[in-house]
Specification:
The complex is a heterodimer of chains A (about 375) and B (about 250). Chain A has one domain: Cytochrome-c3 Hydrogenase, chain B. In chain A, about 45% of the residues lie in helices and about 10% in strands. Chain A contains 14 helices and eight strands. Chain A starts with 15 loop residues before the first strand and ends with a helix. The longest helix of chain B has 16 residues, at about 150-165. Chain B has two domains: about 25-170, Rossmann fold (3-Layer(aba) Sandwich); about 170-235, no CATH class. Classes of the chains: A alpha+beta (about 375), B alpha/beta (about 250).
Amino acid sequence: MRPQNYRPVAHPPSHEYELYFGPNHPGIEGNYAIRVRLKGDVIQEAIADGGYLHRGFEKIMESRLWIQNVALVPRICVPDPVPMEDSYARSVEALGGLEVPERAQWIRVLMLEVSRICAHLFTFGGNAATIGLYTNMFWGVSMRDLFLDIFEEITGARIYHMYITPGGVRRDLPPGILDKLSAVIDELERRAPEFDDLFFDSTVVMNRAAGCGTMTQEQALSWGVTGPNLRACGLPFDLRRDDPYLVYPELDFDIPTETAGDALARMRVRKAEVQQSIRILRQVIARLPSVKGPIRCPLPNPLAWNVPAGEAYARAESSKGELGFFVVSNGGDKPWRVHVRGPSQMHAVQVLENLLTGARIEDIAQIMFSLDACPPEVDR
Amino acid sequence: MSDTTPVIPDQPEVCRTVDAEERGVWRRVMDRFADHCRARSLFVLHYCTGCGAIELPPTITSRFDMERVGVSPMVTPRQADILLITGYLSVKTLKRVILSYEQMQSPKYVLGFGSCTINGGMYWNSYATVKRLDQYIPADGFIAGCMPRPEAVQQVFLDLMKKIDAGQANAWQDYYLNYDRYLGNQMALFGEEWHTPVDVIAEAEHYGYVGDGTRGRFTEILDRHAAYALRDAPEDYPERGANERLLP
């Protein structure tokens, strides 16, 4: 049976040809494929072909206990797992009526912002590599590794932390971690001008990224674009301010925007967001020692925890855009239905297909990376 | 006019047949020497099949620097030595993995990265993923854990080098010797229409690794596919659906 949006590729005329871009193409982000129809090197039509990373998360989550799903959710989006844990935890807390202690909320904000910086550095490196600037990739990845060490010290894992549980966080911060974090942040700020020299002021980037993959604000809104990609079109929409959660209302930060809506503008927004995240982290580091109290509210026996019936939707501003968990409980020990609203689903399918049409073949990788689409989260 | 009739050889010359004498002592000495050299220069196919791909950039780049032990990424399967399966495999990805694997030149090595390749790991009850990698392609080594650290990735490369140097990394021969079993497992998953462009049996004959398990009831189905490709389909050949495109 064909899916509803199935579009067969018509047999191309002789001056056009079809190219299957991916899934083990080095220019593509993750395990993802695009079927493109080309005339010369100009793309006439692009059809996203995902499904390589489908694991059936929403179905698996129905067969695991509420607490077991804590281990499952970060695996949905690999480069930026913390917002997944946080959104799932907040939706379960809304169902179960749990109050998160204040200290846990501050720790969660710390984790979220460090994760945002990690994801942006990774995208920055990948985006630079797609236009041949491999030094940036090496720098971005090595810079991100310093933050992964912080994660490792807090949670015990570099990538999948499973640290944020419904009701709070798993354990308190280790002693001295805030000093280490501020040293890493200082290092990142110290190196920021070098990144500028190498990437944002580079002639290659100006020539390749400016005007590449442009969308207007109306298009972005009608295609369901969120996050930095939407802010690069000039709309200052950020869930941390417009639908605040945790302790974000107490924090002071700006929402950077650009107006061009192209690949360069998207990367500039990410760069500015990293600076804002550093600003948030400095406030958290200053505030956290004075916030005392428990890190987790008392939970019932997690192996026999029946969450009250109802439905809840919790959303967060992840590094890719709006991320939401819609969780339905029928009063049992497992979720009855879970739906994940991932930002990359829109960015990698409908937005990518539209932006690629009319672009040139060498810009496919750049457009995909500048949208910061995360294939594991597209397919789930 | 028998002169104008084109001469069609009975057996198309796919590849040269290896003499039995070539496998003598000298050949074995040369193989050992080649193994010794081969272990020092390995290329990993750049194919991010799952979440494990997130730990490869740190492994490749400055901090852990895989290249200093002689391992480097390679973009095309035909020039790669190692197929690193980074994490879970969905059924759709497994098809591409097998296509990539069969395009690689022997000797080739497969490494499973993460618990998902060993027993399904976190996705043990998922309807979409493959639970055991070594049922479909032979693997030389595994890394347990989710997610394994870059040091673990380096360690498995070092172990593989030792095995290659000692002439023990021979899982690729198992694919030729027991092709029928692997093909049967693949067909159980993808259906009987599954076939790849690579003639594995001809390769097995070329390398001299034809065993009892090379041909069997599943490779007989492949012969029927070959006949179908030559517009000479048997009567009972299954009808192919309009939307069935096994290859991209």
